[in-house]
C-alpha cells in the first residue's frame, strides 16, 4: 500500500439519528479487507471516544490505539491524521503482522542496492515515504524483539539507517501504533520491550468493541444497507423489527467488519426489500450472565482435559511435556488453517515464539526440524521468542 492523502473521510448520516460517520476515501476498495470500513459515533461511549480523539489529534504526540480486530483502528488513525497539522502530508499504513521477519526491516527502513539478494535497486522505507506526515503501524504487538529494538532507536533518534547503508537519514514522522494484544501482559511475559511500550503509549486510545456500544449497531446497519443496497439494486431496503432485535442481541465477536459482512450476505439472499431475522446467518447470541448450567459445562470441559492428561501420565510416554505441547500447537495450527498470526493470537504467544516451536516440531514447510533446547534455555526462549545468544546479538547491533 502506498502512502495516501486522506480525502473526505467524514460524512454525516442523513437519517433519523445524525451521527458522524468515518469511512475510507474509497470504501468499495476495502470490501475484501478484514478491517472495519466505517465508524459511527451515536452511542454515548462512542461520542466520548470521538471527543478524546479530537483532543489529542492536533498534537504531534505518538498514539497507541488498542482494540479488537474489526473495531476500526485504522479509521481512527486516519482521522487523527486528518485533524492534525500534517493532514496535507502523506499517510502511510503498514500491517506489521503481514510481513515476514526478514522483510519487515527493509519495508520499514528501506535498503540500498545490493544490500541483500534481490535488492536490484535502492528503495525508500515506510518512514521515508511518510516523511512529514503520519505512519500507522498496525499489529505492533507481533513485532519480533530484535525489530522492536531497532524501531525504538528510530523513535528516539528520529533517523533511519537503510539496510546496507552507513549513513542515517533524518525523518519527521508522527507514529500511530495499533494492536489487539494486551501490551502490558506482553511486557510482563517478555514478549514486548517495556521501553518501546512507554514510547508508544504517550496518548492512548482504547477502542470499544461493538457489543459494548449497542447504540452504534443500528446506525451502522443502516449505513451498510445503504451502501450494499445501492450496489445490489435495492430501491429501499428495510429491517424487520425482529431483525433489529436479533442484531442488538448478537455479541459481534468480529465487530464492525462482521456486521458489514452480515448485512451484505443478508441483502444477497433476502427475497424482498425487508431483511428478516432468518436472513442473518449469525454464529450465536450475546453471552448471558453465568448460570449454574454454564458453569457446569466449563467444569466438564476442564475435567475432560484433565482426564486426558492423567491418562497420558499413566502411560508415561517419553518427553511427555513436549508431546503435549506439540499436540496443542499442531491442533491450534490446523484449526487456524496454518495461519501463523491467528494461531499466535489463539495461543496468546508471540508469532516469533510460535515460529520457533513450529520449526522444532517440523510443521513449517521448507524448515528442517531442529532439536529442542535444554530446559533452562527452552523456558527463556518460550517467554522471549529468542535465545540468550540472539539477545546478546540484538543489543550489540549498531545503527
From TrEMBL:
One GO molecular-function entry: DNA binding
Annotated Gene3D superfamilies: 1.10.8.60, Homeodomain-like, P-loop containing nucleotide triphosphate hydrolases
UniProt record, GO biological process: regulation of DNA-templated transcription
Keyword field: ATP-binding, DNA-binding, Nucleotide-binding, Transcription, Transcription regulation
Residue stretches making up the Sigma-54 factor interaction domain: 39-268
Domain of life, per lineage: Bacteria
UniProt cross-references to CDD domains, sorted A to Z: AAA
InterPro entries per UniProt: AAA+_ATPase, AAA_lid_NorR, Homeodomain-like_sf, P-loop_NTPase, Sigma_54_int, Sigma_54_int_dom_ATP-bd_1, Sigma_54_int_dom_ATP-bd_2, Sigma_54_int_dom_CS
Pfam families named among the record's database cross-references: AAA_lid_14 (PF25601), Sigma54_activat (PF00158)
Listed PROSITE patterns: SIGMA54_INTERACT_1 (PS00675), SIGMA54_INTERACT_2 (PS00676), SIGMA54_INTERACT_3 (PS00688), SIGMA54_INTERACT_4 (PS50045)
PANTHER family: TRANSCRIPTIONAL REGULATORY PROTEIN, TRANSCRIPTIONAL REGULATORY PROTEIN FLGR
Protein name: Sigma-54-dependent Fis family transcriptional regulator
Organism phylogeny: Bacteria, Pseudomonadati, Pseudomonadota, Gammaproteobacteria, Methylococcales
